[in-house]
Design goal:
This protein is an alpha/beta fold and 361 residues long. The chain contains 15 helices and twelve strands. It is globular. The termini are far apart. The relative contact order is 0.12. It binds nicotinamide-adenine-dinucleotide.
């Protein structure tokens, strides 16, 4: 974070984001320091995970939560589900600072918002943490299956990502088949492993890279894939690049090197700078399937959990990602904009349209 950002006031930091409400939760007894950001509730309650992270500063935590919560608004809106966007962060070390009391205190804070914000898992939190939170509030998803929760959302996320990839292939090559396509999967964690399964089943040639030896081994034991060094990912000859590890892997350096025809992966915030890098991909003729559109399976899983969990229904909603991705490519082409811009516009248009429907009654 730049020095200037560090010294910005909170209202200055949220300028342009248009949040409805940001709540600071402080409980010295349990050590809880959390920020819940409710970005937009036009389509429904703001749903988004709780991230626990050892932020270097409070300003960094604020910046993360405002950016991530807005992203959730777009993700829900483009997925056609009736949820708004929100997110929460807890400042702390997930390895050492968790306790039942902290989660239950946090659950009380979530409950005090009366359903305007619904939480879920994110980086640094898991189903066990959600179990404690749900002792204090009903506004919690991502619970374990034995509590009626949706369990691990990764297979649903991977399925949506796979369908988005097929749609992008259809746009790029006129055929949605991935048979014989060389796909580079960067990150074979929860989502990446399931994605590899779909690709192998369809007859794609799969390359994998990860910095975690365990995950590499698990994937190679299960599937016939080729391993690539983590720092050689962008040098590979590939048809499709699937970022399934970290954000911001699409940047000046990587895009310069990329020789693929399609980028489609599960990672959040893949572009370091959405405007600039979206334009660079378009310029290179690379079909980019917007991340927040094709990785929405996890959010859809939470949505279905709110209705009474049913895995088939979660996969049913997720299937729509294929057609939506085709529609976004068509809109981008008609309006001569990037696919990221087309996806954002579509999300905002839906929010605007539904806001007016509601105001007539
Ligand atoms: P994960 O932590 O299980 O897996 C990420 C994998 O990436 C790990 O194996 C890690 O070792 C690897 N990795 C980290 N740095 C790397 C690098 N430099 N090069 C190669 N590999 C690297 O996470 P996940 O749940 O599989 O999620 C993957 C991505 O998808 C994340 O960006 C996440 O935010 C996003 N996402 C996940 C879900 C979900 O349902 N789990 C939903 C939406 C979005």
């Amino acid at each position: 974070m730049s020095q200037s950002n560090e010294h910005k006031g909170i209202f200055e930091q949220i300028e342009g984001y248009e949040h409805e409400q940001i709540v600071f939760c402080n409980d010295p007894e349990t050590g809880l320091r959390s920020i819940i950001a409710i970005h937009n509730t036009v389509l429904g309650p703001a749903l988004g995970g709780t991230r626990m992270w050892n932020y270097a500063s409070e300003a960094e935590a604020v910046r993360d939560v405002i950016r991530l919560s807005r992203g959730m608004t777009y993700k829900a809106a483009i997925s056609g589900i009736n949820l708004g966007g929100g997110k929460a962060v807890i400042i702390g070390n997930p390895a050492t600072d968790k306790s039942e009391a902290l989660w239950r205190r946090y659950g009380r804070f979530v409950d005090s918002l009366s359903g305007k914000y619904i939480t879920a898992e994110d980086v640094g939190t898991n189903t066990g943490d959600m179990e404690f939170i749900s002792m204090e509030t009903d506004y919690c998803t991502g619970k374990p299956e034995y509590l009626g929760g949706g369990g691990d959302p990764s297979p649903v996320t991977a399925y949506g990502t796979y369908l988005g990839m097929k749609a992008a292939a259809k746009v790029k090559w006129g055929d949605n088949s991935l048979k014989g396509k060389r796909v580079m999967v960067q990150g074979v964690g929860h989502v990446g492993q399931y994605l590899v399964g779909h690709l192998i089943e369809e007859g794609a040639e799969v390359l994998i890279a990860d910095i975690n030896e365990n995950n590499i081994k698990k994937t190679m034991d299960r599937y016939d894939v080729t391993r690539v060094d983590a720092d050689k990912v962008y040098d590979q000859d590939m048809d499709i690049y699937a970022p399934c590890a970290l954000g911001a892997t699409l940047n000046d350096t990587s895009i310069e090197k990329l020789k693929c025809g399609v980028v489609a992966g599960a990672a959040n915030n893949q572009m370091e700078d959405e405007k600039r890098h979206g334009a660079m991909l378009k310029e290179k003729g690379i079909a980019y399937a917007p991340d927040f559109l094709i990785n929405a399976g996890g959010l859809i899983n939470c949505y279905v959990e709110l209705q009474g969990y049913d895995r088939e229904r979660a996969f049913g909603y997720t299937e729509k990602i294929y057609q939506r991705t085709l529609d976004i490519f068509a809109k981008a082409s008609e309006e001569d904009i990037t696919t990221h811009e087309a996806a954002e516009r579509t999300a905002l248009e839906r929010i605007d349209a539904i806001a007016h429907v509601n105001s007539r009654f």
